[in-house]
Amino acid sequence: MKAALANRLWLFTSRKAARHFHYASRHVVETQAGILRNYLTQNQETEYVDKYTGRQVISNHHLPITNYDDYLPYITRIANGEQDILTRDPVQLFELSSGSTSASKMIPYTRTLQREFRLALSAWIHDLFTHHPDLITGPAYWSISPLTAGPRRTPSGIPIGFEEDSAYLGSFGPVIESSLMAVPNFVKHIQDVDDFRYVTLLYLLRCEDLRLISVWNPTFLTLLLAPLETWWDSLLKDLADGTITPPNQSPITNYQLPNKPRSRTLSKLSPTNYPSVWQRLSLISCWADGASEPYARELQNLFPDVIIQPKGLLATEAFVSFPLTGYGNALAVTSHYFEFLSENGDILLAHQLEKGKTYSVIVTTGGGLYRYQLNDIVEVTGFYNQIPCVKFIGKADRVSDYFGEKLNEQFVAGVLKELFAKHNLNPIFYMLAPDDTPPFHYTLYIELADNSTNRLSDYLTTQLDTSLRANFHYDYCRRLGQLAETQTIQVKDGSAAYIRACQGRGQKLGDIKPSVLQKSTGWGEVWSQKSGDF
To answer: Do 497 and 491 form a contact (C-beta atoms < 8 A)?
Structure first.
């Protein structure tokens, strides 16, 4: 009952944002122009804006196209306590973004930026609950990444990271979170990953009425569920006794009430029969585009009767798009100001995009990032009235280039998709990475659902290399002998090993994204010697 009331409250408080979005769907030019005008007006007399406009703000074309490195001097000064650097609105906190190709980035969050995120989130929640009213009647699991480094602050005392995930939800956040979240926020602070997963599973098993699961990376959920069979007896005992005994004995001061009836019910089930464990689960929200597609497909196999709703494109820096039932992922035109770099180098606005074409996203936000290149490539799949709906394709900055071969993720993804279709393969993990073991070459690491080796054609490796040579630069390096022919290695536990390796390279668990192409070497050491080489 508490969850139902909280969800109805959430739906009610989301109505205004939803109406604003639907109005904007017929007034995209006006809406976007108004957002830009507000940014430039409100942030006059800041050091960044005045540097380029001389306080004579006419349009954003006075401002340069930027990337994160352009902001480093400004962010350092803000972290040290200086004001009016990027925005007049004070920075409330920095959120970390540990991109897979660079060190952690500190993204400034103002109240304006938090409001912009809530606008898009509210429009999505309103659409979700309206089209799936059964979700309203029960609790949800919103994935919480473990806070592995512990709470941090800048030299001037500005927090790094949201202490409470409900901060994203505004003034009603604490009420909503305490009433409908299946897993309480304290779990976020468990720094041991196995203990984090154990306690998360304990609370999820307790939640018989679970209706919705929202995670970013689909492998986050598959890896969370993987040890359930191993821990099953211990989890059921904790559930019955009201205790929490994680495998690595992280200190847990919280407690739960004993639930012997639920424990007895679960003891009659197989721990791998997830639909029986959570019989009322009806929707899973996760990434399902680009490199995430095979992992979302694996998740669908685990929950055959559950709707898998592809998430929109959300970065730490900006909320780009969200799912709109019947249309795909709609651009969040009421949240930020968007520009798009076309394939021929033109910069276009939201109302100028064309269906079927791909673009790189440039965004200006209330957090003080101006004409910022997200380096996310999207394809326009259709429109909701005037609003483009977009599908994430890959990263524009994911280019592997050791000898001038200039392999980019979008090209590699297309090559692999064609090869897999030709050989009737549906891998649950795959990734191409450079290998500096002499002679230097690229290796495809691939995992099939049944781990059989005989399903990989002897010709797959040769055909992969041939297909990659359609890239002029790669072919030239092959002809010069700078690169040897590609190799193919069949692996086990691909997703789990990949995520462990990314964590070892400094990425936060919740930020790790599937990647078709890696730029770094050394990936051959990640998997065991039991992997098959073809």
So the answer is: yes
